[in-house]
Amino acid sequence: MMTGHKCWGYGQKDGPSEWYSSYPVAQGNRQSPIDIDSKQVIFDPCLKPLRVSYELCTSLELSNNGHSVMVDFKDVDDKTVISGGPLEDPYRLKQFHFHWGTSRGCGSEHTIDGVSFPCELHLVHWNARKYRTFGEAAEAPDGLAVVGVFLETGKEHAGMNRLTDALYMVKFKGTKAPFKCFNPRSLLPSCLDYWTYPGSLTTPPLCESVTWIVLKDAIRISEKQMEKFRRLLFSTEEDERVHMVNNFRPPQPLKGRVVRASFKV
Ligand SMILES: [Zn+2]
């Protein structure tokens, strides 16, 4: 998703507080993530239910891009799309990835009333009705739609095992492994109630092109499954080993934006 080749990361010298020097939009008016303040949220009865049509085998590869672990999808047609919710068009799934911390006290990017979750899943979609390529969509204000799912630790998540059991294959930055026929529907909670607001990518280039759909209900994975994420590395096989943890950007200023909820409390 990088348009340039500037170095960025989550360390002291290249972390989120430094990103603005190469990506000035980091200080823009619709940056993500945010803290969702439940008292400021507006219930919008016009918001439609989110429809998820992830029916066929369109997943391709699992990879470690040095910032997260990602699964990418064939996005040449509308076989794996979301629609409804706050969206005017269907949006095609391009990839999903995760953000997590060193322990259960931190890791998510969005927070709810100031509280973090141990991990957050992002399913990144693009508007192929209006734009020709993912890159073109990423530059447009209504180009992308990202579904955010909080992960809590507790009981083991059966649908997550295929993924967590494959993570050892992409331990190092720049490594890939085939990952066919994985349906990410299994990673969504049964209730699809959501919050929505206009925002951005949470990693450089931080484009302000994302309609965020953050699900109210978290999914649960075991501490053992979570530990497998923390064993991944930011570093290549040749570098000094640095564990891939705390790969999250903290909440950004709301700057007058309104967060709408599809549900009443
Ligand atoms: Zn993300």
From TrEMBL:
This protein's record includes keyword Iron: no
UniProt-listed Enzyme Commission number(s): 4.2.1.1
Pfam families assigned: Carb_anhydrase
Entry GO MF terms: carbonate dehydratase activity; zinc ion binding
Catalytic activity: hydrogencarbonate + H(+) = CO2 + H2O
Enzyme class, first EC level, given as a word: lyase
Protein name: Carbonic anhydrase
UniProt organism field: Eublepharis macularius (Leopard gecko)
